Amino acid sequence: MTLQTSGIHHITAFVGDAQRNADFYAGILGLRLVKKTINFDAPEVYHLYFGNEQGAPGTIITFFPWSTGRKGRIGGGQVGVTTYAIPVGSLDFWEQRLATYRIPVTEVSRISESYLSFADYDGLRIELVEREEGAPSTWSFAGVPVEHAIKGFGGAVLYSTNPLKTADTLGHTLGMVRIAEGDGYIRYRSTGNIGNIIDLKATPVPQGAGGTGTVHHIAWRAIDDSEQLEWGILVQSHGYQPTPVQDRQYFNAIYFREEGGILFEIATDPPGFANDEEPDALGLKLMLPSWFEPHRAAIEENLSPFQIREIEVKQG
Asked: What is the pTM for the complete model shown?
């Protein structure tokens, strides 16, 4: 059986305060909050989704904000860096914007590309890279014009405790193509035009520790439920034990941990975030699956309110 993922569906991370999280990803990076819901496995915690205007696969970063959670440590068995693609000619805009908000930025080079590297308020590592590929964003917020807006994921940098095993999974299980090597990384490419470049650190990275400021998992795209079932069979044939299909309301998911320690998910493109809200009203209301609706009052009372807002620039 031969399958090829088109790339990243979403990336999910642990963060601290929900308001600070929204301030960074909406107020500074200009992403749209496309869904405000809860962690279905821990309903006392929000699950927030930020992406482009539609929340298209390949643009979605999701968060579990947990203000009392322990601090994590980025390391092996994790996504080390989340890479965002921006339009060609936009690096100067973003360098100036991040400086305005006093976010330290480092310019780095990897496999013949230049990146702006920085961290969010919880320590998650982020990069911006100019790419021709990928549809331009149509979402403008907080002073980020569409001509410079983040398109979605450029890809990710993976930290593995066993890079040889992770490389095998990327190539032989997920169907990615090894296209380059250099600067201590191996580069893979998927078939899509967004979320399609994966850089694997070529040497083992000491095991990280999950918690605030770390990525929980990375999800790869499946066209639909039928293909996801094929993925489950394929993953199992390669020696992994995928979970049963999980209904996440906006996609269906299966999970498995590859041998370098990274938690992989395979998520379906449909039904998407307009499944329970109108497209022009995404993210405005706390959305709950039907089995939690009887408990809405208690759930809402337990969650700290936050708002999507423009961030005032501090003077002096």
From this structure: 0.97
